């Protein structure tokens, strides 16, 4: 059973979502504002957040950034009447697993949520610590240690991209493949978003003086992760 925090200021919709999801086996908490959401999130260990964007006391996107920083493994979905593509992209760029535009069918929401949870469960079971030269990756803690010995925190999406590339070590992985397997076929961000994540990961790779790990670009195709001196614990 998953604990879901529903952040929705439309009371009737919030109650409908809560009742429907509880009937499918989830435990739901309803919050109608940023303040209520913060209080609920601190008190209970929610694994999923369903977040509206237009809240009476703040931005759902900013609140989502705040809450997912506290607990990085949280599954985040935006449910919003805002259909502006730029806002949708912004939501996905901060790490949302999906962005569903209102109105939507409740059954569709559950199907999307089940798909995301299945993929998420597969990822969080990966507790390997990968050591490569002077670098190490702890997938269970969403942390990497750079070539200077500094521990760097990764976002959930950065870690998921790095793990997917590691799971396909030496293979060319297209941007579309990353989008489909990490965000889902219908929720993916732009190619530019993927490129930005890769830039961040490359900065970490470049701290290794031995150059034992590298993410290389394959023009017009995608990326390939190369490693030497690799050891998994």
Quickly describe the structure.
The protein is α/β, with parallel strands linked by helices and 233 residues long. It has eight helices and 15 strands. Helix 6 packs across helix 8.
Structure explained in plain terms:
The chain is α/β, with parallel strands linked by helices. The chain folds into two domains: 3-124, 3-Layer(aba) Sandwich (Rossmann fold), CATH 3.40.50.2300; 129-232, Arc Repressor Mutant, subunit A (Orthogonal Bundle), CATH 1.10.10. Helices cover 42% and strands 26% of the residues. It has eight helices and 15 strands. The protein has helices at residues 11-23, 34-43, 60-70, 85-93, 106-124, 156-167, 175-182, 191-205, and strands spanning 3-7, 27-31, 48-51, 54-55, 58-59, 75-80, 98-101, 129-132, 135-138, 143-145, 151-153, 172-174, 213-218, 222-227, 230-232. The strands form four sheets. The chain has a five-stranded parallel sheet with strand order 2-1-3-6-7, with helices on both faces. Helix 6 packs across helix 8 (191-205). It is elongated and about 60 Å long. The mean pLDDT is 86.
